[in-house]
Specification:
By secondary structure, this protein is an all-beta fold. It is built from no helices and 9 strands. The protein has one domain: Immunoglobulin-like (Sandwich). The chain has strands at 3-12, 16-22, 33-41, 46-53, 58-60, 63-65, 70-77, 82-91, 98-108. The termini are far apart.
């Protein structure tokens, strides 16, 4: 079962927004994310692109997140008032962990 990420994000239909989800609290010391993460939505009107692992340190919700411990993506369009994003990433542990997290995204009409 996926955990709900601390982020509850809001965007307008006209915005293109950068999203980032930290998996740092689910990784062991020295463990990193690897490969190609996925981001899916339960809305077909939302466009998700540029999905990848963080390539530099980031600040997410006031916390510093090291390189390769977060997933980043771009969000565009969307018409649903509320949708759930599911983010899946794999770690470099042996055996590898498959980690999942959900974000609730609120989409409001552009004015």
């Amino acid at each position: 079962m996926a955990s709900i990420a601390k982020q509850i994000v809001c965007k307008t239909t006209g915005e293109v927004r950068l999203g980032a989800v930290s998996f740092a609290n689910l990784l062991a010391s020295g463990e990193l994310l690897t490969g190609l993460p996925t981001v899916t939505a339960d809305s077909t009107t939302l466009t998700i692109s540029s999905i990848g692992l963080s390539t530099a340190g980031l600040t997410i919700n006031g916390s510093t997140v090291a390189t390769a411990k977060a997933v980043q993506f771009l969000l565009a369009k969307g018409t649903a008032p509320r949708t759930t994003l599911t983010i899946t990433a794999v770690s470099d542990a042996t055996p590898a962990q498959t980690l999942m997290g959900d974000i609730i995204l609120t989409i409001v009409a552009s004015t």
